[in-house]
Amino acid sequence: MTRAVVLGASGFLGSWVARALVSLDIPVITVGRRTSDETRRLDVEADILDLDLVGICDDADVIFDLAGTGDVPRSLSEPAVDLRANLQTTVAVLDAARRATDPPRVVLVSSAAVYGESVTVPMAEDHPLLPISPYGVSKLAAEHYLRVFHRLYGLRGIAVRPFSVYGPGQRKLVVYDLLKRIVDGERPLRILAPADVTRDFVYVEDVAAAIVALARDAPAKGEAYNLASGHATSLRELADALLVASGVASAAVFVGDQDPGNPAHWCGDTSKAASLGVTLDTTLARGLAKTVQWIAM
Predict the structure, then answer these.
(1) Where are the domains of the chain?
(2) What is the SS3 assignment for 174-206?
(3) Cα separation of 278 and 213, whole Å?
(4) Fewer C-beta within 10 Å: the chain N or C terminus?
(5) CA-CA distance, 60 to 198, in Å (whole number)?
């Protein structure tokens, strides 16, 4: 890997992938929409679909596709918007890559949402793919396009399926939402979901490093890789860990039902990525401590 492009570099995970590349002295072009976060300056500010993607692909040997949205609730209310953001952009990137003079590898950042509800635990890459939200459907369709482009055109690429990513810089989803309310003084902490809902939480710096490592080392024949810790954490356990990390002596109260489009239980099988030397080792306690330190700044 000598030249990389990160599409969606203004986003949470995209900005960390760009940082991981820079730490390895790999020249990187960052592309995304304008952001108010001054730490996420971009080389190119534009909607992906407005760009000369073939020209961009000609300038890189790896394209990291993190463009799109990770908003499950919005995908329920506006599925057409989700389709454009998460599938149309990926198809445009794949088509541009295969038309490039020297086609780059494509790293599609998909999601564990392609699995839907867990049938077996931990969930390996061959787990049934039955998404329960339009977001999950669009990500699964993007993966299918990646595999078809490899089969038809020989385009090299992989899909990565992060589970519940958290860490500094994230300003949405459960870890940030609960932590922000703890810092703001909510006592007791009220959580609008069942206490026994489980997720597989992975620290963002680990995920970014794993994405870069797989881009370099994977066979890139359209295959998919889980990015997970291999440990299921309940919302009760998460809430308790957040209170401890924040140094707050309080409790959590659980009310309400599971949101539509979100599965009840997730835990990823890590063995496929591990077979290529990829590990995500930051413990939840350590990752939450780093996130608390960031949010308190």
Answers:
(1) 4-167+201-231+267-281, 173-196+232-265
(2) HHHHHHHHHHCCCCCEEECCCCCCEECEEEHHH
(3) 7
(4) C
(5) 39
The Cβ of residue 151 has, within 10 Å, a number of other Cβ atoms equal to 11
Cβ atoms 74, 82 nearer than 8 A: yes
Q: What is the pLDDT of residues 221-258, one digit of tens each?
A: 999 999 999 999 999 999 999 999 999 988 999 998 88
CA proximity to 174, closest of 107, 214, 234:
234
Query: Among candidates 162, 142, 161, 146, which has minimal Cα distance to 103?
Result: 146
CA separation, residue 86 to residues 15, 199, 228, 255 (Å): 18, 23, 21, 32
CA-wise closest residue to 205 among 283, 269, 271, 111: 283
**Model pLDDT for residues 187-227, shown as the tens digit of each residue:** 999 999 999 999 999 999 999 999 999 999 999 999 999 99
CATH class assigned to 4-167+201-231+267-281 = alpha beta
Beta carbons of 71 and 12 less than 8 angstroms apart: no
**pTM given for the model:** 0.96
Q: How far apart are CA 129 and CA 132, in angstroms?
A: 10
